[in-house]
Amino acid sequence: MPDMTGAESTVAAPVPLLNAANLLTAARLVLVPVFAVTVVASGMSHAGWRMAACLIFVVASATDLVDGWIARRFALVTSLGKVADPIADKALTGAALVLLSWYDRLPWWVTVVILVRELGITAMRFWVIRHGVIAASRGGKIKTALQILAITWYLWPMPAALAPVGPWIMGAAVLVTVATGFDYVAQALRLRRPAR
Ligand SMILES: O=P(O)(O)OC[C@H](O)CO
């Protein structure tokens, strides 16, 4: 529409909340209970149900890659998406880790260390939001990829020759999870330091 000078207005239309990227994030959240019920149905002993649970986990994890890409590629980034996306990620990996420990496939300390880091950093992000946004770092993305790979390894009924690789991948995931946690804390402290 022309403005008072006759020029076309360049005010961008608001991004709709109900867009493809946010719908994918919502789908990931919906898949969390579906995944959990499938793991419980497997009791982590029925191979068919374990495979089904693993496939649901992989599909849900894949939406994490796709929703971010769609949001950036088609300019569909919204505040709702920025908040909901990491919550959906952490709900999915958190549910998987708790269930793996519940069924004695993963030591509880691993689940507790990862959950404390994930929930702590999420809370810290909200706490410092008025000073600035702490975006996901490259290390954070590598951490998420390692967690997804490790969880997939534990969920799938692996042949005996491959199963021992799982704890090594999970060990690497724990190390990167803790290291990136400290890095985010350092970023938060720099954000809160008053400018001189
Ligand atoms: O390490 P965070 O908390 O920034 O999380 C990283 C995201 O999961 C990457 O998609």
Automatic annotation (TrEMBL):
GO CC aspect terms: membrane
* Gene Ontology molecular function, alphabetical: CDP-diacylglycerol-glycerol-3-phosphate 3-phosphatidyltransferase activity
Record GO biological process: glycerophospholipid biosynthetic process
Q: Pfam families from the entry? A: CDP-OH_P_transf
Q: What's the chief localization of this chain?
A: membrane
From what superkingdom does this record's organism come? Bacteria
> Where is the protein localized?
Membrane
Q: What does the record say about its membrane topology?
A: Multi-pass membrane protein
Transmembrane ranges, per UniProt, are: 20-40, 52-71, 106-128, 140-156, 168-186
Instruction: Provide the top EC class.
Output: transferase
Q: Per its UniProt record, what InterPro entries does this chain match?
A: CDP-alcohol_PTase-I (IPR050324), CDP-OH_P_trans (IPR000462), CDP-OH_PTrfase_TM_dom (IPR043130), CDP_ALCOHOL_P_TRANSF_CS (IPR048254), Phosphatidylglycerol_P_synth (IPR004570)
Q: What is its EC number?
A: 2.7.8.5
**UniProt keyword Membrane present:** yes
Q: Which UniProt keywords apply?
A: Lipid biosynthesis, Lipid metabolism, Membrane, Phospholipid biosynthesis, Phospholipid metabolism, Transferase, Transmembrane, Transmembrane helix
Asked whether the UniProt record includes Transferase among its keywords, one would answer yes
State the PANTHER family in the record: CDP-DIACYLGLYCEROL--GLYCEROL-3-PHOSPHATE 3-PHOSPHATIDYLTRANSFERASE-RELATED, PHOSPHATIDYLGLYCEROPHOSPHATE SYNTHASE-RELATED
Q: Record's family? A: Belongs to the CDP-alcohol phosphatidyltransferase class-I family.
Listed NCBIfam families: pgsA
**Protein name, please?**
CDP-diacylglycerol--glycerol-3-phosphate 3-phosphatidyltransferase
Give the organism the record lists.
Answer: Micromonospora humi
